[in-house]
């Protein structure tokens, strides 16, 4: 088991072991980290944190809810010890914190009418078949569609995946794009729509995959390294998928990407 002491990598793990509790910054976002209707902390990141910190000798996790935009500032001002919110790892955030390697990757998929009558499987299909296209407010999928040649002004922007499903079911659009996880979950009760297989969008002509992980203060690299060692063991054993599966994650969301790769962009 990795240890953390001394000044080079921080001594937070030693302090957490002594306290017996680690404070987790969460943002109330299903399925990543939230308080359920019974008042219990859950989500893919807190449940994974419970397992890993237990293995590191810290028995309890304590939620500290905040807004998503306050997670990194709250971490760096010592309001909590680690961000456990499924946060995407990107170059801008990597300048402010250090990340674990990602515990999941996220591909895209489409909501289409049953049988996928237009045969839409990626953004190039949408462009070539002149499909009516929708995605959510502020979604990265806007960029991916434009990258493939879709006119941004022709995109129907809706609030979220539920509105996207409704637009497909009503025939207002042919396709709604979102993350594989959110689209898969929202179509489960639909009689009129289905979800396509997950796929990798292109950015600057290259496949682009997002990945989410845990954030630590830049001074606490020893804790990050110890956390990573346990995370990698859970990946090797298959235990990681078992922990994440109840939150809608599948084999398609498992990844060998590293934080270093995602920090480069």
Automatic annotation (TrEMBL):
Which CDD domains does the record associate with it? PBP2_Ehub_like
Listed SUPFAM superfamilies: Periplasmic binding protein-like II (SSF53850)
- Entry keywords, A to Z: Signal
Database matches in Pfam families: SBP_bac_3
The family database entries (InterPro entries) matched by this protein are listed as: Ectoine_EhuB, Solute-binding_3/MltF_N
The signal peptide annotation in the UniProt record is none
Tell me which residues make up the Solute-binding protein family 3/N-terminal domain: 21-251
The name of this protein is Amino acid ABC transporter substrate-binding protein
Q: What is the native source organism of this protein?
A: Streptomyces leeuwenhoekii
What lineage does UniProt assign to this protein's organism? Bacteria, Bacillati, Actinomycetota, Actinomycetes, Kitasatosporales
């Amino acid at each position: 088991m990795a240890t953390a002491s001394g000044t080079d990598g921080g001594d937070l793990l030693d302090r957490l072991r002594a306290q017996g509790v680690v404070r987790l910054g969460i943002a109330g976002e299903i399925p990543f980290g939230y308080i359920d209707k019974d008042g219990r902390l859950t989500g893919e990141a807190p449940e994974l944190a419970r397992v890993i910190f237990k293995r590191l000798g810290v028995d309890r996790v304590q939620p500290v809810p905040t807004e998503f935009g306050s997670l990194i500032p709250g971490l760096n001002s010592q309001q909590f010890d680690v961000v456990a919110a499924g946060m995407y790892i990107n170059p801008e955030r990597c300048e402010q914190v250090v990340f674990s390697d990602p515990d999941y990757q996220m591909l895209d998929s489409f909501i289409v009418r049953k049988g996928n009558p237009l045969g839409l499987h990626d953004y190039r299909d949408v462009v070539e078949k002149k499909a009516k296209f929708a995605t959510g407010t502020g979604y990265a999928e806007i960029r991916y569609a434009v990258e493939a040649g879709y006119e941004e002004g022709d995109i129907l922007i809706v609030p979220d995946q539920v509105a996207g499903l409704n637009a497909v079911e009503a025939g207002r659009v042919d396709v709604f794009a979102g993350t594989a996880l959110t689209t898969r979950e929202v179509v489960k009760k639909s009689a009129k729509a289905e979800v396509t297989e997950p796929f990798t969008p292109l950015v600057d002509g290259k496949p682009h995959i997002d990945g989410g992980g845990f954030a630590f203060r830049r001074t606490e690299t020893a804790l990050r390294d110890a956390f990573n060692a346990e995370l990698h063991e859970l990946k090797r054993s298959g235990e990681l998928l078992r922990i994440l599966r109840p939150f809608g994650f599948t084999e398609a969301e498992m990844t060998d990407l590293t934080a270093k790769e995602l920090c480069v962009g």
